[in-house]
Amino acid sequence: MTASEENQTTRRRAPAMSPEQRRAMIIQTAIPLIAEYGAAVTTAKIARAAGIGEGTIFRVFADKDELLQACMAEALSPEHAVRELDAIDVSQPLPDRLAEAAEALQAHMSRMGAVLGSLGHRGGKHPGTVRGAGRTESTTRIRAALAELLEPDRAALRRPPEQIAALFFGLLFTQPRTEDEPDLTPQELVEVFLHGALSGVAE
């Protein structure tokens, strides 16, 4: 058997993706395109980016609208954000842990906002659940992961880790913006959160 024939045999024997794996791959490919083009993105463009035939999309999605709904649900899913929070090294100092958490959650919110904004909220309806996580459960799971990051410093906290986590999560979502000042970096945001607005320099 020639090398070319061996390669062809290997390709033929490669395990095919399950329908669930195929759906997940298409969704991950589609999300950046939806963020860029909105609902106007074509299934042909998504297929080209995924390296598959357009017909493959319709073997795992009933139509384009179902694909868009699945992408919205994935953008709202806490799965990726929770995994990133769980991966943060809790042996680091608390400010470093929270700065990493802020970066992960800001990326999550940016991705979520890009997809929902590009799709115009699809009539304002919440797209439902993904892997059992609706909007309220999403927030609860992310707060729980934040509380785990705070747990090693429980004794030094003014309030229980769960309450501090809720406050920090709220600050990330409601960070005020001004036209003449740049956004706080994650490190700056954490410094203000942990130490307040005073610089610590006595008059």
Polypeptide structure, described:
This protein is 65% helix and 0% strand. With 203 residues, the chain is mostly helical. Helix 2 (19-37) crosses helix 5 (64-76), helix 2 crosses helix 7 and helix 6 (79-86) packs antiparallel against helix 7 (94-118). The chain is elongated, with a radius of gyration of 22 Å.
List the defining traits of the structure above.
single chain, 203 residues, mainly alpha, 10 helices, elongated
In short:
This protein has ten helices and no strands. By secondary structure, the protein is mostly helical.
Overall structural class, as computed from helix and strand content, comes to mainly alpha
Low-confidence stretches: 9-14, 122-132
**Straight-line distance between termini:** 84 Å
SSE order: HHHHHHHHHH
Radius of gyration: 22 Å
* Fraction of residues in helix: 55-70%
Biggest beta-sheet profile: none
Total of DSSP H or I helical runs spanning 4+ residues: 10
Task: Note the beta-strand portion.
Answer: under 5%
* Mean pLDDT value: 84
Question: Which geometry do the CA atoms define?
Answer: elongated
Total E-strand runs = 0
Tell me the layout of helices and strands.
Layout: H1 3-13, H2 19-37, H3 43-50, H4 54-60, H5 64-76, H6 79-86, H7 94-118, H8 135-150, H9 161-174, H10 186-195
Helix pairs in contact: 2-3, 2-5, 2-7, 3-4, 5-7, 6-7, 6-8, 7-10, 8-9
